[in-house]
Amino acid sequence: MAAPKYIFVVGGVMSGIGKGVATSSIGRILKSKGFKVTAIKIDPYINIDAGTMNPTVHGEVFVLDDGYETDQDMGNYERFLSETLPSINYMTTGRVYQEIIRKERNLEYKGNNVEVVPDVPLEVLRRIDEAQKAAQSEVTIIEIGGTIGEYQNIIFLEAARMLKNKNPRDVAVVMVSYVPIPHNIGEMKTKPTQYAARSLNSVGLQADIILARAAVPIDAKRKEKIGIFCNINPDHVISAPDVDSIYDVPLNYEKDGMGDILCDVLGLDKRPSNLKDWESFVTKTKNPQKEISIAVVGKYFMSGDYVLSDVYISVIEAMKHAGAAQDVKVKLAYLDSEVYEKDPAKLEELKQYQGILVPGGFGSRGVEGIIAAIRFARENKIPYFGLCYGMQLMVVEYARNVAKIPDAHTAEIKPDARNPVIHIMEHQKEKMEKADFGGTMRLGTYPCKLRHDTIAREAYGDVEEVQERHRHRYEVNLNAVIKLTEAGLKFSGTSPDHNLMEIAELPREAHPFMLGTQFHPEFLSRPLTPHPLFVAFLKACLPAGRPL
Ligand code: GLN
Predict the structure, then answer these.
(1) How many domains does the chain have?
(2) What helix, strand, coil percent values describe the chain, rounded to 5?
(3) Of 137, 170, 186, which closes a domain?
(4) Coil, strand or helix at 345
(5) What angle is formed at CA 20 by the lines to CA 245 and CA 439, rounded to 5 degrees?
(6) Residue 520 annotated as catalytic
C-alpha cells in the first residue's frame, strides 16, 4: 500500500458550523472514489469519554459496537461512511492523558521526563496510527473539535503540525470557516476567516482547503479574496451553504470539485467519484409521496428557549432513512412529557399523530407523563415504538394497567417499589454503590435471539439472531416475566441465555404496532441501509397499514 494519507479538519471563527458533517462528507466522497477511508474524532474535553456528559450540554451520547461512549459526530461518520468504527477512532484530552499517565506509572518512558510537548502530541499520533492500521485506511480523516485559537485543542493542532512536518505530502488541512452576512451590511464578510487562517498559521499549519460555511454559496469574488488573504488557491475555497438536509453536503462539495482537489493536494490518483446511490437516497428524501407526523415524547427537549433535537440525533436520522425507504416524509414533533403530568387532558393531542416514539433516557423527570402517553398509545391503538427507557416504561405501563401488578415501577425511579418490574442488573449494583459511573453501563453490541411469529422477527427478515447496541443499567425483572406474559405481553427478543428481555411487543391482534427494544436500534441505521425496526414502525404508521 502507498503511504497512508491524512486529512485534518479544523474549525475557524466559531463552533457549531458542521465540522462533523464536513468530515463525514469528505469521507463519503473519497470512499465513493474507491479509497479505503476511516474517520477519527478528537474532543478536547478532560472527560475520558462522552458517557458522563449531560446530553443537554453535549448532545447525544453515541455508542460504538465495542461499547465506547462517544460524541454524536461518530454517528455521523458511521452513517456517511457506512462503516463500523472502533473506539480507537475517538479520543479526548482525558483519554490521551490517562494513557500517558498509565505508561509513566509503568516506567514505559524509561526514566525520561514526560513533557506536554512532545509526549502528548506523540500519544495523539500513536492513536491515529493505531486507528489507521486497524482500518487499513488509505485516507484517515481526523476532526479536531473546538475552534482554532482556543487553548484547549492546541496539543492536537501540534500533533497535526508534527505529522505534516514529517510527511509533508501526505497530510492535508481543511479549515471549516464561517462567512457571515451581517443584516445591516447585506454582504458576505471574509475578515473573520482571514483571522482564523492567521491563527492557524501561528500554530505552524496552513489550510490547503477552506470550506466556506455561509447562508448562501460563496461567489467568485469572495473566493478570490479568501485566496489572497489566506494564502490559498481560490479554487480550493469550497462553497458550503446552509442546506435543508445534511445528506446534501457531499453532493454540494462535489459541485466545487472537492474530491479531485483533495486528490491533488495529497498526490492520490484521480478517480471518478460515484455518488449515485447517495444521490438517489437524497432525491427520495426530497420528493416523498406521503407525509406523516410522529410524536417523540421525552424530557430533554428544552434549553432556555431552544429545542434540543441534537440529543436524539440518531433517532431523527434513523427516521429519515426509514422514511426514504418508504417514500414518506416523517415530521417529528417533540413533546415534553411533563405537560401530561400537569394536565392529562393534553394527552388527547396525541391523536393527531400517526405514531408515538419514546426514546432512551434516565431519571425521574417526566416519567409519569411518558407512562401516560404509552398508555394512551396502547388504548387508542396508535403505533408505538419504545427505545431502551421507552421499552422499560412500556413494560411498567403494561404491568400496572393490564397485568395489574400493584406498585409496579422501575427501580431507577422507585428503588423500594413492591414490584420493581424493571430492576438494576446484578453486576451494576456494586458499581452504583461505589459511584463507579464512567463507562460501566451494559454497553455496546450483544446478540439478541428472535422468537418465531413475532413482529420483531418478521421485521428483521426472519433471522434467528441479530446484534444490537446497548446502553443501560436496568433490565426487565425475570420475576415479572411470567405475569406479564400471561397478561399478553410477548418478549420476542432475548439474550441467547434467555435471561435478558431485549424486545417486548404486543401481538398484532391486540395492537397494530406496540414494540419496545432494550437496545438502541437507531445507532445502526444508515442512509442506504435503514434499520428494519424503524422501517416496520413507519409501515405501521402509514394510514394504509393502520386499521382505523
Ligand atoms: N435509564 C435506563 C437504564 O439505565 C434506560 C437507559 C437508556 O434509555 N439508554 O437502564
Answers:
(1) 3
(2) 45, 20, 35
(3) 137
(4) helix
(5) 120
(6) yes
Please indicate whether residue 299, judged by its CB atom, sits closer than 6 Å to ligand 1: no
Instruction: Tell me, using a 6 A CB cutoff, whether residue 389 lines ligand 1.
Output: yes
Give the pLDDT confidence of 184-241 residue by residue, as tens digits.
988 899 999 999 999 999 999 999 999 999 999 999 999 999 999 999 999 999 999 9
Catalytic residue chosen out of the listed positions 475, 520, 531, 541: 520
**Residues contacting 236, CB < 8 A, separation 6+:** 208, 209, 210, 227, 261, 265
Q: Within this chain, do residues 305 and 449 fall inside the same structural domain, yes or no?
A: yes
Nearest to 382 by CA among 422, 335, 450, 339: 335
Q: Is the CB of 471 under 6 A from ligand 1?
A: yes
Q: What is the CATH number of the domain that holds 383?
A: 3.40.50.880
Q: Where residue 18 sits, what CATH number does that domain have?
A: 3.40.50.300
Length of the chain: 548
115 flagged as catalytic:
no
Do 19 and 125 share a domain, yes or no? no
Range of the domain at 515: 288-540
Query: Do residue 311 and residue 259 come from a single domain?
Result: no
Pairwise CA distance, residues 207 & 210, whole Å: 7
Q: Quick one: 171 and 121 in the same domain?
A: no
Return the closest-CA partner of residue 472 out of 384, 368, 387: 387
Given the residues 123, 143, 254, 388, the one annotated as active site: 388
Ligand 1 pocket check for 472: Cβ under 6 Å: yes
Q: What is the pTM of this model?
A: 0.94
Tell me if residue 522 is catalytic: yes
End of a domain among 239, 256, 286? Answer: 286
Q: How far is the CA of 202 from the centre of ligand 1 (A)?
A: 45
